[in-house]
């Protein structure tokens, strides 16, 4: 295995809170998958968890080297937690196609958040 790309993103939790307040379900359903919504909405600090997933999605697209182009949507990058609580990345549709075309076998993710900010690091790994 070898590293194909890395990405990082930091997001203000207040920015995500404002988007949720301003656009509500429209924003949430456009950016997050049903599984992500279920996870975040049941957490004590839901906004921090939504912000962490936002940062993770941004970091992943930086790691695979595309940004928000080539037919990739927000929900094509999904953060799924293992039973241990560790976050993992599942790529769908356009994001999966791009990753496959670049020989990316797996994307590792680390997410952290505090009251004001969330940060994520992603590493795209090839075979």
UniProtKB/TrEMBL annotation:
Keyword Transferase: yes
Gene3D superfamilies xrefs: 4'-phosphopantetheinyl transferase domain (3.90.470.20)
Co-factor(s): Mg(2+)
Catalyzed chemical reaction(s): apo-[ACP] + CoA = holo-[ACP] + adenosine 3',5'-bisphosphate + H(+)
Keyword Metal-binding belongs to the record: yes
Primary site of residence: cytoplasm
Gene Ontology CC: one annotated term: cytoplasm
GO molecular function (one): holo-[acyl-carrier-protein] synthase activity
Localization terms from the record: Cytoplasm
Keywords: Cytoplasm, Fatty acid biosynthesis, Fatty acid metabolism, Lipid biosynthesis, Lipid metabolism, Magnesium, Metal-binding, Transferase
Assigned protein family: Belongs to the P-Pant transferase superfamily. AcpS family.
Physiological role: Transfers the 4'-phosphopantetheine moiety from coenzyme A to a Ser of acyl-carrier-protein.
Protein name: Holo-[acyl-carrier-protein] synthase
GN (gene name): acpS
């Amino acid at each position: 295995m070898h590293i194909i790309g890395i990405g990082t993103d930091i997001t203000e939790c207040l920015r995500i809170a404002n988007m949720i307040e301003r656009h509500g379900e429209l924003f949430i359903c456009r950016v997050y998958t049903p599984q992500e919504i279920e996870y975040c909405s049941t957490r004590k600090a839901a906004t921090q968890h939504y912000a962490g997933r936002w940062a993770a999605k941004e970091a992943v697209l930086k790691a695979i080297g595309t940004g928000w182009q080539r037919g990739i949507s927000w929900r094509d990058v999904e953060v799924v937690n293992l039973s241990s609580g560790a976050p993992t990345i599942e790529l769908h549709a356009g994001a999966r196609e791009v990753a496959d075309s670049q020989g990316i076998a797996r994307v590792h993710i680390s997410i952290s958040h505090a009251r004001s900010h969330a940060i994520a690091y992603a590493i795209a790994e090839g075979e």
